[in-house]
Amino acid sequence: MSATISGNISCAVPIATHDRVVLGHGSGGKLSAALLKEHFLPHLHSHALRMLGDGAIVSAGRTQVVLSTDTFVVNPLEFPGGDIGVLAINGTVNDIAMMGATPAYLTAGFIIEEGLPMEVLDRIVASMARAATVAGVQVVAGDTKVVEHGKGDGLFINTTGLGLANSEFRPLPTSARAGDAVLVSGSIGVHGITILSAREGLDFQVDLASDTACLYPLVEVLRRATDDHVATLRDPTRGGVASTLNEIASASNVGIEIDEASLPVPTGVAGACEMLGLDPLYVANEGIFVAFVPEHLADKAVEAMRGHPLGREARRIGKVIDDHRGLVVMRTGLGGTRVVDMLPGDQLPRIC
Amino acid sequence: MSATISGNISCAVPIATHDRVVLGHGSGGKLSAALLKEHFLPHLHSHALRMLGDGAIVSAGRTQVVLSTDTFVVNPLEFPGGDIGVLAINGTVNDIAMMGATPAYLTAGFIIEEGLPMEVLDRIVASMARAATVAGVQVVAGDTKVVEHGKGDGLFINTTGLGLANSEFRPLPTSARAGDAVLVSGSIGVHGITILSAREGLDFQVDLASDTACLYPLVEVLRRATDDHVATLRDPTRGGVASTLNEIASASNVGIEIDEASLPVPTGVAGACEMLGLDPLYVANEGIFVAFVPEHLADKAVEAMRGHPLGREARRIGKVIDDHRGLVVMRTGLGGTRVVDMLPGDQLPRIC
Question: What ipTM was reported for this prediction?
Answer without folding.
Answer: 0.92
